[in-house]
């Protein structure tokens, strides 16, 4: 066997550290007797309203695959990925490993692997500093798939139209019962260190706002607060203020959006995020505009129309050959935010009969 148990554990540990929407970790793994590794969607954690087309799960699994690929390379192994290797839509990838020939080692990818444990989401603000040309170039160069492109905006005028689209999409998450339910299900109000989901500390909710956030937990209360404009106030607090108080807004776009393309885009997202971490930048993702317009959740016609407006707004900002996928607020911030935790690797192991 090429990989011994210790190496396999180090590879899975890196995979576990990959980001996922709402820290849902919607994947499972199986080591086969041949030494290959399968990555699956967790059927209990994928396919919900915002994930109707598996876009969030596929992005998270893409990040898992890139973590595996980079960590394996760092340990001296080359990987070959076969996407959707059989008709099972939950079987996202089969990975095979081979020895890396010394003269072909990609040192910059090995370096990226070393930042896997440090990468994290930072929802604090303000972010300080200015992104110079060389930093922007380095971020762009971290992507290695022609289907994806990175845009970095530092000019307030260029950022403004995106703020209003991100705000509109974020507000929809608090206006639709299914999306509200999905979001609050992942917030843990009791356990300060949950192995899945997030706490108010991790979400960066200020102590004074916490009673409101707890109150919003039920749909009945959310509806009451929406009558006095709560969803729009939340969007201002979570989108407009933080983005205006950050030196740059990045956007990863995709030309094609098949499931395989989205998984690969997840790989690119991780590469960008690790490069940003290497450069000392804090990163706060905003997935709602791109992901909701791709997932097309079943909503009240008025809310579907609002998402349509977001979709057409994004299209008019972009060239027709590329589609906005995910935004990231970036900048410099001292110290560390409260970090999220992970499930045990044993609980992610898929029993295959
Ligand atoms: C596909 C995807 C979408 C995400 N969307 C958002 C988002 O819209 N807003 C946000 O604050 N964080 C978002 N996140 C960040 C996750 O909540 C975060 O990765 C997860 O809680 C684990 O925390 P970590 O990144 O610090 O390891 C997203 C992450 C992924 C991979």
Descriptive account of the structure:
α2 (55-74) crosses α3 (107-113) and α5 (156-175) packs across α6 (177-185). β3 (77-83) and β4 (91-99) form a beta hairpin. The protein has 2 domains: 5-119 and 340-348, NADH Oxidase; 133-331, NADH Oxidase (3-Layer(aba) Sandwich), CATH 3.40.109.10. The radius of gyration is 20 Å and the shape is globular. The strands form 2 sheets. A 4-stranded antiparallel beta sheet has the order 1-2-4-3, with helices on one face. It has a 4-stranded antiparallel beta sheet with strand order 5-6-8-7, sandwiched between helices. The protein is α+β, with helices and mostly antiparallel strands and 353 residues long. The chain has helices at residues 5-16, 55-74, 107-113, 133-141, 156-175, 177-185, 200-203, 210-215, 219-226, 230-244, 259-278, 288-295, 301-317; strands spanning 27-31, 37-41, 77-83, 91-99, 148-153, 248-254, 282-286, 323-331. The chain is 44% helix and 15% strand. The longest helix has 20 residues, at 55-74. The structure holds flavin mononucleotide (FMN). The site of flavin mononucleotide (FMN) has 20 residues, from α2 and β7.
Radius of gyration: 20 Å
CATH class of the largest domain, named Alpha Beta
Reported CATH architecture of the largest domain: 3-Layer(aba) Sandwich
Instruction: List low-confidence stretches.
Output: none
What characteristic shape results from the CA principal axes?
A: globular
Q: Oligomerization state of this entry?
A: single chain
SSE order, as H and E?
HEEHEEHHEHHHHHHEHEHHE
Largest sheet: 4 strands, antiparallel
Compounds present? flavin mononucleotide
In CATH terms, the superfamily of the largest domain is NADH Oxidase
Strand order of the largest sheet: 1-2-4-3
How many E strands? Answer: 8
Class by helix and strand content? alpha+beta
- Kindly identify the CATH topology of the largest domain: NADH Oxidase
**Averaged pLDDT, please?**
96
Distance between the termini: 21 Å
Write down the domain tally.
2
């Amino acid at each position: 066997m090429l990989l011994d148990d210790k190496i396999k554990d180090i590879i899975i540990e890196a995979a576990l550290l990959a980001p996922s929407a709402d820290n849902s970790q919607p994947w499972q793994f199986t080591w086969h007797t041949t030494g290959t590794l399968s990555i699956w969607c967790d059927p209990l954690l994928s396919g919900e309203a915002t994930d109707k087309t598996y876009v969030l799960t596929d992005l998270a699994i893409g990040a898992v695959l890139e973590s595996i690929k980079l960590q394996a390379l760092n340990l001296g192994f080359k990987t070959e990925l076969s996407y959707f290797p059989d008709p099972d839509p939950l079987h996202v990838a089969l990975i095979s490993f081979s020895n890396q020939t010394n003269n072909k080692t990609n040192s910059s990818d090995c370096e990226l692997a070393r930042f896997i444990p440090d990468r994290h989401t930072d929802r604090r603000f303000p972010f300080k500093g200015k992104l110079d040309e060389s930093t922007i170039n380095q971020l762009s160069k971290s992507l290695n798939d022609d289907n994806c492109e990175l845009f970095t905006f530092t000019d307030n005028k260029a950022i403004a139209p995106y703020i209003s689209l991100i705000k509109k999409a974020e507000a929809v998450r608090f206006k639709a019962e299914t999306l509200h339910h999905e979001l609050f299900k992942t917030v843990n109000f009791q356990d300060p260190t949950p192995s899945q989901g997030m706490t108010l500390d991790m979400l960066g909710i200020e102590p004074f706002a916490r009673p409101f956030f707890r109150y919003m937990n039920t749909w009945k209360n959310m509806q009451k607060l929406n009558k006095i404009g709560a969803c729009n106030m939340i969007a201002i607090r979570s989108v407009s203020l933080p983005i205006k108080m950050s030196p740059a807004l990045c956007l990863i776009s995709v030309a094609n959006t098949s499931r395989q393309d989205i998984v690969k885009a997840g790989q690119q997202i991780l590469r960008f995020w690790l490069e940003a971490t290497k450069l000392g930048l804090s990163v706060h993702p905003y997935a709602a505009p791109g992901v909701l317009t791709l997932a097309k959740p079943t909503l009240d016609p008025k809310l579907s129309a609002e998402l349509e407006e977001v979709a057409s707004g994004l299209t008019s900002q972009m060239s027709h050959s590329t589609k906005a996928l995910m935004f990231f607020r970036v900048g410099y911030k001292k110290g560390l935010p409260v970090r999220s935790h992970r499930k045990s690797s044993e609980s992610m192991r898929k029993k295959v009969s």
